[in-house]
Amino acid sequence: MSNEIVKFSNQFNNVALKKFDAVHLDVLMAIASRVREKGTATVEFSFEELRGLMRLRKNLTNKQLADKIVQTNARLLALNYMFEDSGKIIQFALFTKFVTDPQEATLAVGVNEEFAFLLNDLTSQFTRFELAEFADLKSKYAKEFYRRAKQYRSSGIWKISRDEFCRLLGVSDSTAKSTANLNRVVLKTIAEECGPLLGLKIERQYVKRRLSGFVFTFARETPPVIDARPVEARKTDGDGKGHWTSVAGYGEVFTTTELFDVTAARDHFDGTVEAGECRFCAFDARNREHHARNAGMLF
């Protein structure tokens, strides 16, 4: 299966996914990878496809997987979301359509128009990561830490208070109150799973000998530089004459009217599609200079 990308607004990282286990998180991120930039259109999955996206290590029956899917949406509905601009707190109904069919082994999902901004038209202030890397992590704490670290991928540093860290990662009260338990159950797990992957270092901060917060540092991500090479132009059904087309928030691509597609152009700029498979890179070598790069906004 191709390397799927998860991409959502940074605001989603402020939502604490309480009572989610590792499988629930994998279900959610697998869905997010496929509904992004689809607006509110219904997206259908087969259970076989979902298993592949989740890289399931357990042999779940269709009934067991269906139960996990339904539980995932039920847990989302139990959450509250606060809009940053108005301070309103509303029920977190991310999906208006969520139909699970164990008999047909299918799932149909439609994103709530009110929350579509979390997964669509993202040109800045978003989190982006590879679904396979996320799914390969075993612990819910490692997964929840990983997506927050990816929010700060360009700086390579995340500073956070102890209380907010525990809230965001859904740490139980009994574990959060005990420094020993927090170290053993949460931080040790994160260090073991995310350490080699991210080059992670954890600095603990104290106030009057009490653990008050953390400074996490990890490898910074920089956009890959794609060398411009001669590429044979792709023939189109039009007149074959190219022109520069502006993509809001990204830049310009040299294309034709027949070839241009705004979603494909965004994938070109953020590197979701490999350069070797990119329609714009194949059409004109000049486009390769800007593949997976957007003046530092995307990485």
Write a structural description:
By secondary structure, the chain is an alpha+beta fold. It has 3 domains: 1-136, Winged helix-like DNA-binding domain superfamily/Winged helix DNA-binding domain (Arc Repressor Mutant, subunit A, Orthogonal Bundle), CATH 1.10.10; 138-221, Orthogonal Bundle (Arc Repressor Mutant, subunit A), CATH 1.10.10.10; 225-299, no CATH class. Helix content is 34%, strand content 21%. It is built from 10 helices and 12 strands. It has helices at residues 22-35, 47-54, 62-77, 131-136, 140-151, 162-168, 173-177, 179-198, 262-270, 279-283, and strands at 5-9, 43-46, 80-82, 89-91, 95-101, 106-111, 126-130, 157-161, 201-207, 210-217, 243-247, 251-255. The strands form 5 sheets. Strands 2-6-5 form a 3-stranded antiparallel β-sheet. Strands 8-10-9 form a 3-stranded antiparallel β-sheet. A hairpin with a 4-residue loop joins strand 5 (95-101) and strand 6 (106-111). The longest helix has 20 residues, at 179-198. GO terms for molecular function: DNA-directed DNA polymerase activity.
Write the layout of secondary structure elements.
Elements: E1 5-9, H1 22-35, E2 43-46, H2 47-54, H3 62-77, E3 80-82, E4 89-91, E5 95-101, E6 106-111, E7 126-130, H4 131-136, H5 140-151, E8 157-161, H6 162-168, H7 173-177, H8 179-198, E9 201-207, E10 210-217, E11 243-247, E12 251-255, H9 262-270, H10 279-283
Antiparallel strand pairs: 1-7, 2-6, 3-4, 5-6, 8-10, 9-10, 11-12
Helix pairs in contact: 1-3, 5-8
